[in-house]
Amino acid sequence: MQEKQLHSRQKILFFNKDYISEFVYGGIDGAITTFAVVAGAEGAGLGIQVVVILGLANLIADGFSMSVGNFFSTKAERDSFERHRQVEYWEVENLHDKEVQEIREIYAAKGFKGELLEQVVEVITSNKEVWVDTMMKEELEMVKSDKTAYSTAGMTFFSFVTVGSVPLLSYFFAGTGPANTQELFLYSCILTGVALAIVGSLKSIVTEKNLFFGILETLFLGGIAAFLAYFVGDVLEKMFVNL
């Protein structure tokens, strides 16, 4: 138990390691979708104010939508775990001999045999909570996560909004005065690239994959999304202009 609590408190940078995955995928989605909006607006030749309005609307709406989806997904997993746990409790109480035999078969498959096997079975089945936990893990391959639906949703929304706001920074600071939109878009590209590189490095830590390829993959996906959005915005702008 103490080891489990210590593991849950482990941090990478200033993040609790248990929530790194939510931060990473929320951040990637936020940066890519917001940058796609910026690129699409730039391709259509829209003004700075329009870019900011569209970007903020996307940031809040998509961030909330993603966090709600994460909330219900996590809640469904926890509810499913509890339902199966209650079923195991019922089986332990009402199908005692059958459940004992299942424990015996599980540990026999692990190499236990003879008197040692019977001792293991006796120890596990002497405590109903340990017995049910063992069946959940060994038979159903289900382990309850310490993460709550509210905490995962909160982290997802926080990362989506925080990282997703990066592509808009250059437009925010441009103000309402005259500005070269091409320069603003270039700054947005650079800032977004830096943000995606940082999040991509965190993704590599979560997935335990090569750091370079993790960053490259994230930048590539962001670049493709931006290119498609810019292209669509440019094509639509020319279509409506020619009408």
Automatic annotation (TrEMBL):
Record keyword Ligase present: no
Domain of life of the source: Bacteria
InterPro entries reported in the protein's UniProt record: Ccc1_fam
Membrane topology: Multi-pass membrane protein
Keywords tagged on the record: Membrane, Transmembrane, Transmembrane helix
Chief localisation class: membrane
Transmembrane stretches, start-end: 20-41, 47-73, 149-172, 184-202, 211-233
Cell location: Endomembrane system
Key word Nucleotide-binding present: no
Protein name per Swiss-Prot or TrEMBL: VIT1/CCC1 transporter family protein
Native source species: Salinimicrobium tongyeongense
